[in-house]
Amino acid sequence: MRIIVMFDLPVETPTNRKEYRRFRKYLIKSGYMMFQESVYCKLVINPRMGDFVVEDLRRNKPAEGLVSALKVTEKQFSKIEYIAGELKKDVLDTDERVTFL
Fold first, then answer.
1. 100 phi and psi, to 5 degrees?
2. pLDDT score recorded for residue 96
3. Mean pLDDT of all residues belonging to the chain
4. Domain that holds residue 26
5. Has residue 92 been placed in a domain?
6. In-domain check, residue 42
7. pLDDT at residue 66, as a whole number
8. Backbone angles phi and psi of 75, in degrees to 5
9. Cα-to-chain-centroid distance, residue 55
10. Which H or E element spans position 5?
11. pLDDT band at 88, cuts 50/70/90?
12. Residue 7 counted as domain residue
């Protein structure tokens, strides 16, 4: 399952820019990968873990702006159609499990 986070945050004032940077750093430290400029996604094991991740997002949201979270299954995520641009090969977009021994 994937959690897709989309956000639109104000950056007019120095305080707004600081909150933007703080939220973006939080996403990266929490294991999110940048999908597009203000769209990040994270792989989670199951829906229960997805609920925990979304709750953590609520605790770390900026004071202003819009932050949205969408939970999709790997099967749904794998059906994304790329209309324009190039497909990045370094993004994990399959439902295969990786096991490290």
1. -105, 130
2. 57
3. 87
4. 2-77
5. no
6. yes
7. 95
8. -65, -45
9. 13
10. strand 2-8
11. low
12. yes
pLDDT tens per residue, range 22-69: 999 999 999 999 988 999 999 999 999 999 999 999 999 999 999 999
Name the residue type at position 47.
Answer: P
Structural domains in the chain (count): 1
* DSSP symbol at 35: E
Q: For the domain that residue 32 is a member of, what is the CATH number?
A: 3.30.70.240
Amino acid at site 53: V
Report how far residue 58's alpha carbon sits from residue 42's, in angstroms, rounded to the nearest whole number.
Answer: 15
Q: Considering only residues 48 and 85, tell me which one the structure prediction assigns the higher pLDDT.
A: 48
What is the CA angle 62-64-66, rounded to 5? 85
Predicted confidence at residue 83, as pLDDT, reads 86
CA distance 28 to 73: 21
Tokens of 18: 């600081």
Q: Tell me, yes or no, whether 37 lies in a domain.
A: yes
